[in-house]
Amino acid sequence: MKKIEEFLVQQSYPPLDLKAVFFDMDGVLFDSMPFHAKAWTRTMKNNGFDYTEYDVYLNEGRTGESTINELFLRHRGRMATPEERQAMYAEKGRYFESYGEVKPVKYALELLQKIQAQGLDIYIVTGSAQRSLLNTLHHHFGSIFEREKMVTAFDVKHGKPHPEPYLMALKKAKIEPWQAVVIENAPLGIRSSVDAGIFTIAVNTGILQDKILLEAGAHVVFPSMHDLLTQWNIIYD
Ligand code: MG
Predict the structure, then answer these.
(1) pTM greater than 0.70
(2) Residues 111 and 182 in one domain
(3) Ligand 1 centroid to residue 16 C-alpha, Å
(4) CA distances from 66 to 36, 37, 63, 132, 158 (A)
(5) How many domains does the chain have?
(6) Average pLDDT score, the chain
(7) What is the Å distance from ligand 1's center to 112 Cα?
(8) Same domain, 94 and 107
(9) Does residue 136 sit in the same domain as residue 169?
(10) Ligand 1 centre and the CA of 124: distance in Å?
């Protein structure tokens, strides 16, 4: 029995009837996390906060607003003002853009093509509000993604780890949790997906240990996108 079928039984869900695969974007489709890590740590340092690259990976998936507010609450005992938030997020965005073009994660395109050929719907569910990244999708992945098959930071009130982004993707796709699988790389994204009731595949493209992804609730962890591509048949064929 496939892991996903075990999951369906455990959840008392109906038998396997997969309709869609929901892809997180940063760290799954784009190898953008090193840029995000550098941009956030530099911005935080400029604003007097101590924030490591490891912190960036642990908090990946949070909206920029939430990341900044958390830090203000922890270190200054209050939320950031809208002006402070906008200034810091803009600063982070400027650093990010200055590092040049983000490359796709190797083998992501091949996996997308395989999934598309299986007749499954493909959605993007991201906490990102980087307009440049959204525009870059088309450039690297061609016509695989459609504008209406995306949930971004602009669509949700609560970012990951809240389940809202994945619940909204289910709603947009007009399907139930047992008809989707999620591909994530980050602990907060995994929590969001698991809390939305969806079978969650982690692909560890970053600097965190597998253990952290499993503790977040991932149902299976692959060490790389190449491994996920070559073993996709153990998920779905
Ligand atoms: Mg990610």
Answers:
(1) yes
(2) yes
(3) 26
(4) 15, 16, 5, 20, 9
(5) 2
(6) 94
(7) 16
(8) no
(9) yes
(10) 11
The stretch 222-227 carries a mean pLDDT of 98
The alpha carbon of 90 and the centre of ligand 1 are apart by a number of angstroms equal to 20
Identify whether residues 161 and 51 lie together within a single domain.
no
Q: What is the pLDDT of residues 76-99, one digit of tens each?
A: 999 999 999 999 999 999 999 999
The encoded tokens of residue 215 equal 């503790």
Structural domain boundaries enclosing 75: 33-98
Q: Is the pLDDT of residue 132 over 80?
A: no
Residue 175 CA, ligand 1 centroid: distance in Å = 23
For residues 173 and 123, the answer to whether their CB atoms sit within 8 Å is yes
Which structure tokens are listed for 156?
């949700």
Strand 199-203 to 20-23 pairing: unpaired
| CA angle (21 as vertex; 194, 158 as ends), nearest 5 | 45
Measure 105 CA to ligand 1 centroid, in angstroms: 11
pLDDT (mean) for 117-130: 91
Whether residue 59 sits in one domain with residue 176: no
Same domain, 72 and 85: yes
